[in-house]
Automatic annotation (TrEMBL):
Family that this chain belongs to: Belongs to the cation transport ATPase (P-type) (TC 3.A.3) family. Type IB subfamily.
Organism listed in the record: Granulicella arctica
Origin: domain of life: Bacteria
Designated name of the protein: Cu+-exporting ATPase
Subcellular location: Cell membrane
Length: 290
């Protein structure tokens, strides 16, 4: 490719909020036939809100939310901001946290008032030998597309929280455009099977759920080994390995510094339709060169 055509192409992208890191990315993008998309923050708005607090006996909503929000206050995950926002709205004072640890794609751990607190998915609580007793509330909340978080204090399960994250308004239209362009789309998510299935069926796309960040990268690799040219779009809280593995990593503009550095393409406004625009830009640039 000539440097001039590439400069024109990347310049045109920039005016539309599409940042293309280098010539190689622009050249490769027209060949993309498979697009893997993260759920949270990519297909959904990534601005979840707390819908449900179910404390166990001995706790009330306020005491449960205080403990959980205190811990989540140190996390940068979108789920965490939903929880701290809810605590703020209810004017709940937060407690001090020691030894904060983030377990990527699973949840958070810390010490509050001398007791270990764990908030996250089932796998995280199980890894601390905590038994979750939540009846069948969990599955019905997940069936509504909500993400359920479990909380424990010491060795004891103290309640669950559910968070809803609406699908982006632009997502349906973007998916239609991908189909029209002959790109297959698969949702990949760290969220659980039932929640993922509820969202995927609203969008009518295939999905793989319960994935660690590393597993997402392995799925990219699997499609690549079948000969696909793969783009991966993610908000990047923990999609960095998959973004790096893909032929073209697409960082959504709402994402973190990590993803912005990893992405070959950055969509500043987080609108998936920018992917179709970027691909057209790539096609036009390459045909100008040929
Ligand atoms: P996605 O692939 O949808 O972006 P993530 O990989 O970021 O999801 O997270 C996977 C799961 O890990 C979440 O659905 C949640 O159950 C749990 N999790 C991750 N971060 C946190 C956190 N800060 N607090 C509680 N749970 C978390
Ligand atoms: Mg994510």
């Amino acid at each position: 490719a000539t440097p001039m055509a590439i400069m024109v192409g990347t310049g045109r992208g920039a005016t539309q909020g599409i940042l293309i890191r280098n010539a190689e990315t622009l050249e490769l993008f027209e060949k993309v036939d498979t697009l893997l998309v993260d759920k949270t923050g990519t297909l959904t708005e990534g601005k979840p809100s707390l819908t449900t607090l179910l404390p166990v006996e001995g706790f009330n909503e306020t005491t449960l939310l205080r403990i959980v929000a205190s811990l989540e206050n140190a996390s940068e995950h979108p789920l965490a901001s939903a929880i701290t926002k809810a605590a703020h709205e209810r004017q709940i004072d937060l407690l001090a946290v020691l030894d904060f640890q983030s377990h990527t794609g699973r949840g958070v751990v810390g010490t509050i008032e001398g007791q270990r607190v764990v908030v996250g998915n089932e796998a995280l609580l199980h890894s601390f030998d905590i038994v979750i007793s939540s009846g069948d509330q969990t599955e019905s909340l997940r069936g509504e597309g909500k993400t359920v978080l479990f909380a424990a204090q010491g060795d004891r399960f103290i309640g669950l929280l559910a968070v809803a994250d609406p699908i982006k308004e632009s997502a349906q239209e973007a998916l239609r455009q991908f189909r029209d362009s002959g790109i297959r789309v698969i949702m990949v998510t760290g969220d659980n099977q039932t929640t993922a299935s509820a969202i995927a069926s609203l969008l009518d796309i295939p999905f793989e759920a319960g994935l660690s960040p590393q597993k997402k990268a392995e799925i990219v690799e699997r499609y690549q080994s079948q000969g696909a040219i793969v783009a991966m779009a993610g908000d990047g809280i923990n999609d960095a390995p998959a973004l790096a593995q893909a032929h073209v990593g697409i960082a959504m503009g709402t994402g973190t510094g990590v993803a912005l550095e990893t992405g070959g393409i950055v969509l500043l406004c987080g609108d998936l339709r920018g992917i179709v625009k970027a691909r057209r830009l790539s096609q036009r640039t390459m045909s100008n060169i040929r």
